[in-house]
Design a protein that fits this description.
By secondary structure, this protein is an alpha+beta fold. Strands 1-7-6-5-4-3-2 form a seven-stranded antiparallel β-sheet, covered by helices on one side. A hairpin with a 4-residue loop joins strand 5 and strand 6.
Length: 162
């Protein structure tokens, strides 16, 4: 799980979340696209525009709208792999990134489930702004995944609401 085989400029964000819940319960939560809105920071104004219910399977297409710094953006993903309750992978077909591949892995542990997210992403060509914008985007992604971890715990009633 590194950057071998990806074009130059591709970055990897890897996060792991441990949940004291059965893998089947955790995977079931993630298998409903409608839950994405519950685990996305409200300032992104995330909205699924694909009519529901969405059947998660290889080839499923999901359309979203988000706002990034107030700018509305459309995002379309395709499910490339669907292996319940172990993993699934989605690919951005259209959206704010030049490339976005997101692998979700679910592993049983002695005390629950380890959820690993790996996101390989590449920003649009930005010339001299590439480094500062890349650092800003990385901080934003880290904050989104921090929010997501807390939101998943709340949604699965693992931690009480603050």
């Amino acid at each position: 799980h590194d950057l071998a085989g990806f074009p130059p400029g591709t970055r990897l964000l890897e996060r792991e979340l441990f949940l004291p819940a059965q893998r089947s319960v955790v995977f079931e939560f993630f298998s409903h696209a409608e839950n994405l809105g519950r685990i996305t920071p409200p300032d992104l104004e995330f909205e699924i525009t694909t009519p529901g219910p969405i059947r998660m399977e290889v080839g499923a297409l999901i359309d979203y709208r988000i706002r990034l710094h107030g700018v509305p953006m459309r995002w379309k993903t395709r499910i490339l792999e669907w292996v319940p309750p172990h993993r699934f992978v989605d690919l951005q077909l259209h959206g704010p990134y030049r490339f976005w591949l997101h692998e979700h892995e679910f592993r049983e542990t002695r005390t629950g489930t380890a959820v690993t997210d790996r996101v390989w992403y590449r920003l649009p060509a930005l010339g001299p702004l590439a480094r500062p914008v890349g650092a800003l985007v990385r901080r934003q992604l880290e904050a989104i995944f921090d929010f997501r971890a807390a939101a998943v715990r709340r949604a699965l009633a693992i931690e009480p609401m603050p």
